[in-house]
Amino acid sequence: MFERLPLTALRAFEAAARLRSFKRAAAELHVTPTAISHQVRLLEHELGVRLFVRLPRRVEPTAQGRQLQERLSSAFLDVADTLAALRATPDTGALTVTTTHSFAALWLVPRLRRFRAAHPDVQVRVEGRPEVVDLHVERGIDVAIRYGTGAAPGLHEAWTLAETFGVYGAPSVVATAARRAPARISVTWQDSTLYEDGWRQWCERAGVDWLHRKAALLEYKEEHYALQAAIAGEGLVLASSVMVAGSVCAGLLRPFRGDVCVDGSRYRALCLPGRERHPSVKAFLDWLQTEPTRDETAEVRGTRETVFASPTANI
Q1: What is the pTM of this model?
Q2: Where are the beta strands (DSSP E) in the chain?
Q3: By its UniProt entry, which Gene3D superfamilies does this protein fall under (predicted)?
Q4: Do residues 291 and 151 share a domain?
Q5: What is the dihedral of CA 134, 137, 143, 148, to 10 degrees?
Q6: 289 in the Ramachandran plot: left (φ > 0), alpha (ψ -120 to 50) or beta?
Q7: Which of 32, 79, 306, 309 has a C-alpha 20 to 30 A away from that of 40?
Q8: What is the pLDDT of residues 68-79, one digit of tens each?
Q9: 267 plus 187 within the same structural domain
């Protein structure tokens, strides 16, 4: 049954569908764009269906094309994993994870020692990037941890971590915040009102008029900068329960009005379909599932306040 498989055409199609470009597929496979186009036409003729919609600067797979591309990508990954396992020089177990600078610095990197202790043979490389990485194009990246609830077409979602937002400060600042309005520390994301809206909602729920007072507003472009400013005593910061957990556990920050919080979004671990079965990727995703379930608590004046909640899984 395999003798009739048009392997050259399937490989050309998979690359073009994944990269959304005949030119980029040609560069990856070291052939010409004309050769890619020819192989795709042969495959369309063989199947009797249209696999691409040709647009001015790219190609988009049709519904049938997307279905075929997902199955092919998964199958090719399985073959690649099998070949790696059979090599005389075994795979080093390297794993590349991309996420935001703040999530890497405040959540992931401080916890990786536990993953490395459990999996000393897996070499983890963390890439902090502000932009969303296209995993279909950058095949060297195994896992992307992204923020938000938007759709992730063509990707496998292996883990989610929910958050809420609250207000935190250095112990000395929190102790006096009820008597005088402190400086507010916030984060400015490009084209995002997340923190602006969060501060407004928090102040409304807390019943304070800080937004209308002349207290200073300090703004930073990254969450870890904002948290460091709060730790230094510059004011109170609106922060994600995910990002602030380590600082609260270390006693560097305390919640102010811990009974007041506003909804946040979630972090998700994503990978190409089929890659979740690769040994090093599976080990990492399995670890993510168990790591956050260890509730982190901090002693705050004789009471234990939970500052990090267990995530919900969506596999």
Answers
A1: 0.71
A2: 52-54, 59-61, 94-99, 123-128, 143-147, 156-169, 184-187, 217-220, 236-240, 254-256, 262-271, 297-300, 303-306
A3: Periplasmic binding protein-like II, Winged helix-like DNA-binding domain superfamily/Winged helix DNA-binding domain
A4: yes
A5: 10
A6: alpha
A7: 79
A8: 988 888 788 778
A9: yes
